[in-house]
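Batch job 17 of 40 flagged for manual review because the log was empty.
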Amino acid sequence: MALPAHQLDAFLAVAETGGFSRAAKRLGVTQPALSQRIQQLETELKRRLFVRSPSGVTLTDAGVRLLRYCEVKRALESEVLDDLAVDPGAGFVTELSGTVRIATFSSIARSCILPAIADVFRENPRLIVDFNVREMSELEALLTQGGAELVILDHVVARPDVEHVALGSEELVLVESDGSRVRDDVYLDHDPEDVTTMRFLGRNGVKTRFVRRSFFDDVYGVLDAAALGYGRAVVPKHMLVGAYAEQLRIVPDMKSMRSPVVMHHFRQPSYTRAQEAIRQAIAVAVPELLLGGATARRPGSQKRGTTT
């Protein structure tokens, strides 16, 4: 059974825009015509693909699987078309192209993932990276709904259709300002849903029932606020580099805590060369960056005054 392209285009537009009216506008068709295409596709597949609600549409499990198929097809097609567009006299195309979507959490995004893939990106001008930093609670949904090819989490998503690669772990430590007067009765977090600090304190025998907390959106806001003396913060040790290494000190007599870093992607029959290269770069570089802290060298970097 071959799935008609116009029906798949209609499905993909609705899935990506989250609504029939926006999808119809994107495709330049009327909403009734779009709805008819979706209905025909659902009839052909004998599966419901969307659940409608006043706030928009959400994908069913069958819809999620079809979305992954569409994205794989689009990525492979884009790679082939990009390769064919190269001068035929250039021979076999080795340069990577297409788009790779990566989603991760803030404490490893800038410190580990971006440095890990920098060389791949610089060496392949036709490659596009769609990089998203999300809250941990959003990342698993992004993975299961096909919102990114690679998703890095602090836990394993146990699904038979998902592969995962352990990249190491973050060593969490309690820090405070090394220069400013410190509010040592206040602990800094991302948001009220962030339980990392409470887990850390609990493991160190601190009664958390009356702990006072302030919130600073992302890990860099937390680090900046801690450096200014707003309070103490539980942060990954590998982030204590540069100015943060000078402005913050680790609070003694508090045991560190490990938090896993795990890369996920869906199993599929074929991957683009770009997807494989990005996965390999992350798998090789991130474990070293997590372990190295202030002494780790970023990929592609070279110490001044040295030669290779």
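Reviewer: the log was empty due to a logging misconfiguration, but the result itself is present. The first helix runs from residue 5 to 17. Unflagging and moving on to job 18.
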